[in-house]
Structure formats: structure tokens, C-alpha cells
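Incident log, structure service

09:12 report received: a user says their structure output differs between two submissions of the same chain.
09:20 pulled the input from the user's history:
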Amino acid sequence: MPSAVAPVKQPPAADRVYDHVKQAVLDRRYEGGTLLTEGHLAEAVGVSRTPVREALLRLEVEGLIKLYPKKGALVLPVSTQEIRDVVETRLLVEQYAARKAVPVPPHLVQRLEELLDEQRRYAAQGDLAAVSVSDRCFHAEIVRNAGNRILERLYDQLRDRQLRMGVAVMHAHPDRIAKNIAEHAEILQALKAGDAEAAASAVHRHVDRVRDLVREDER
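09:34 re-ran on a clean worker, output below:
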């Protein structure tokens, strides 16, 4: 007799709550300033309140929420200082990686072209969260290609902040989506041409645009 198929084991309850809240914060279903209650989250995920508390503590450590005893958890908005810090770190890492990528290997060219096509498709569908994920992957592929594991880990630590900021900027400046894609194409063209300095300059212009948008929003 054929053996029975074992049921798929669900992740622990706290992990399910953590994943639910984190994803909702990153794609802005839970906007900055939203107050989340343990009861609401327990009902949304189908768990008791104990794993909800555990998940919220993890998210507070990551800087996505602020816990208020007996009230709930406040989703923290993206701060201007946080955006500045991320932009500065990205410039340091990504310009180095762009220079290191030349001469660009064929597999990297192919992957970057795939991601560009993906961004165009998601943009046409109006899926800003998916555009933001693909955008980050485009830059991460160039960083990974540099072969520096310390820099790669540092860059990966920015992942959630980049995704959240990317969606925030795209919502506030929807005209940036087409410009972002065009600037990615510019970076790729410089890499394919074997011009390390042009690639680094294209990265600088592209990433620094985020800083310009922040300054506009401050005024």
C-alpha cells in the first residue's frame, strides 16, 4: 500500500504572526502611524495572543514598530534620517560594486536584463511593491557579483528598509517608476560597455535621486 502523504507542517504561530505583520508593514498595508492591537492580529492570523506578543517583540527590535503596554504596537514611519543613512551606505557599497563588475560577466548581464523586464511588467500592472522588490534585486545582483561577502551581508541588512522606502517613494512620486527603470537601463548599458567609471557615475545619480526626493518632501 502506498504510504499516506504527511500533512504539511505549519510554521510556529509566532513566526506566522511575524511574517504577516512584517510583510504588511513593508508593502504599506499597515502604514506608518497605524496602531496594531494584539486582539486584531491574533484574529487576523488565527492564533492566541501569546505568539502575537513574541512576534511584536521581534519586530520592535528590528525597528519597524514601537510597543506600548496595554495599547498595542505603533507602526513606525520611515524617518528622514533613516533614508539619509540608507542612501549614504548604498552609495558607498554600490559604486564600489559597479566598478568591480567591469568587465561584466555574461550571467550578470542576463540576470540584470531579466530584472529590467520584470520591473517593466510590474510597473504596467501597477504593482508598486513588486516593482520595489525587483528594483532592490537589480542592485543586489551587482553587489553580490563583487564577491565580497562582508559587503554583501551589510547590503542585505538594508533589505527591509530599502523595500519599505522604495514603496514609500513610489507612492509619493509615481513618476519615479519609469525614471528608475530608465536609470537601471543606463547602469546596465555602462556595465555592458565596460566603462567602470560611467557605471559608478550612473549608480551615484540614480541612488542620489532618493536624497533629492527626501529634501523635496522636507520643504
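09:41 both user submissions now match this output. Likely a transient worker issue. Closing.
09:42 reviewer note: The beta strands are 35-36, 65-68, 72-75. The CA atoms of residues 105 and 145 lie 9 Å apart.
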